[in-house]
Amino acid sequence: MLSRFSKYYLLSYCLLLFSTLKSQYDTTHYIPYLADLTGATKMANLEYQSVFNGAYFMFSTFEAGSTNVKVYKRNASGSGWDSSPILTRNISPGSPYTWSPGNSKVQEFFRYAKYKKKKPKVDLRYNQSWLKTGHYGLKIVATRNIYVRTVLQPDAKDGGSTEYGNGTNTHGAAFSSKGVTRGAGVEFYSAHFYTENKVSQSGDQDFISVMSLENGNNVVLNSTKSWYTLTGLASNKTITLNEGESAIFKRSWSGNNNSIGTRVFSSNDKEMVVTSGSWGGKLRDASTNAQDIGIEQLVPVKALGKKIPNESIKNHPC
């Protein structure tokens, strides 16, 4: 017979396990603003479409029947979401959909930060004020729960004078949206991607991308390291964001002073979604041209749950 105490922990464990399996399955997903922050002339080309090279999204579900998916971008003033979706699509079990946004729509969630004379269209120079925006980011709403996978697969070809990037970055990244139920929160700790015995490279940039889900959100960057923020280099900084606005914090990795575990939180308990990672890092540092990207959407501290003693669940499977 299980004691009342053991039953409590067994139930808690089962609920935690179930919620973890469902943690990426939701009706509403947000994709925060992302950017190539390397400043290199050899940039990723996420807009050239050749089959599925470039950026794309994968929508899937196992809900019975037809599920309608809509994707919204920010409005022209950056004050809210457009009322008309940029994508409307029905999916069902066994019939997922892969969406390639195309050249112009990629820019709704991804921006380049390097000016290139050969391509006047690429005139998005890096500066501090550019790190905060209300104009970029995506909202995805479905009539039933869906999975959303974001893939950044830079193409090896030059996009031409009408597109961004010259396609020399051949390494990409992917991450799964956590949805709002498990992905939205008020406190996060960042994750970044390093090689063993890593050496410093000028193009390596750690980043934290934040999108607020409420107005007047006082987002605090809390770190022992200095990061570039909206108002310059700082180790601790508060940025106020309204609903749908995004901010990016970035810093260069150097001297084993890594960024792992940087705390980002709302001082007035307003919810946000956060991605973090390393842009332009290298899994093989000796390779001068390779740029490996690591990105993940974080789960908030509230979603991590509590550790359950092993003896309480031993030999008692759900």
Q: Explain this structure to me?
A:
The chain is mostly beta strands and 318 residues long. It has helices at residues 4-21, 102-106, 179-183, 310-313, and strands at residues 26-31, 34-36, 54-60, 67-73, 87-91, 97-99, 110-112, 132-133, 138-153, 173-176, 187-189, 205-212, 217-229, 232-241, 246-252, 263-266, 272-281, 292-297. β13 (217-229) and β14 (232-241) form a beta hairpin. The chain is globular. Mean pLDDT is 79; it is low at 5-21, 119-123 and 311-318.
In short:
Helices cover 10% and strands 37% of the residues. It has 318 residues and is mostly beta strands.
Topology:
Elements: H1 4-21, E1 26-31, E2 34-36, E3 54-60, E4 67-73, E5 87-91, E6 97-99, H2 102-106, E7 110-112, E8 132-133, E9 138-153, E10 173-176, H3 179-183, E11 187-189, E12 205-212, E13 217-229, E14 232-241, E15 246-252, E16 263-266, E17 272-281, E18 292-297, H4 310-313
Parallel strand pairs: 2-7
Antiparallel strand pairs: 1-9, 3-6, 3-9, 4-5, 4-9, 8-15, 9-10, 11-16, 12-15, 12-17, 13-14, 13-16, 17-18
Features:
seven-stranded antiparallel β-sheet; 18 strands; 10% helix; globular; disordered C terminus
Task: Give the domain tally.
Answer: 1
Question: How far apart, in Å, are the first and last alpha carbons?
Answer: 15 Å
Give me the number of helical elements.
Answer: 4
Low-confidence stretches: 5-21, 119-123, 311-318
* Beta fraction: 35-45%
The helix/strand order is HEEEEEEHEEEEHEEEEEEEEH
Radius of gyration: 21 Å
**Most strands sheet:** 7 strands, antiparallel
Helix-strand makeup class:
mainly beta
